[in-house]
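Page 47, continued from p. 46.
Same chain as before, 234 aa.
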Amino acid sequence: MDIILVPGFWLDASSWSEVTPALVAAGHRVHPLTLPGLEAADAPRAGIGLRDHIDTVVAAVDAIGGPVVLVGHSGGGAIIHGAVDARPERVVRAVYVDSGPLGAGGVINDGLSAVGDDIPLPPWKDFEQAELVDLTDDLRAMFRARAVPEPRRVASDLLQLLDERRYDVPATIISCEIPSKLLTEWIAAGHPFVDELARIHDVEYVDLPTGHWPQFTRPAELGAAILAAVERAT
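Result:
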């Protein structure tokens, strides 16, 4: 199976490096992406928006030419959902890593502080403690050293979705900060936060208790969880 891996904010393709060995060992082909504007700290980010990131994923799907599994971490979850909407006939499963599908007209996070066209990685004090679980001082230093500013518009552009066949694509939610039990309770209660997730016909939940960056804090376990999701798609 071809697996396209989409990183969250401030990260490039290399952020998946400790997750992919289990997938490759199982015979799968992995395609970790570096999205536009994330190539380097001094890369141009002016004019890059959410649609540019979605189009990059769609282009990767088209280049493969066969069925794919999409994996998106954090803000990458909204991006892969946009790609599912564009190519529902090609995606056999969408895997959301501490993230979920964003509904039409939603934004990923327009509350982040921008400097011109850039959103730098915020100071750690700006994050919730639940996000930082297991992120040791060494991991924090590593993350900050490799972090690339996110293009401002990717966080604030409205997501456009057109094809309701996206709800037919099976999804796996790998829950880290928020236990899956709470997500299902929110769905039952009609909470707007999970409105788009509630519309997907086939959803499985996997709990991986850690902070918001399991590719750094629990990479082997994350690789195993993604592998299990991929195997259910084959």
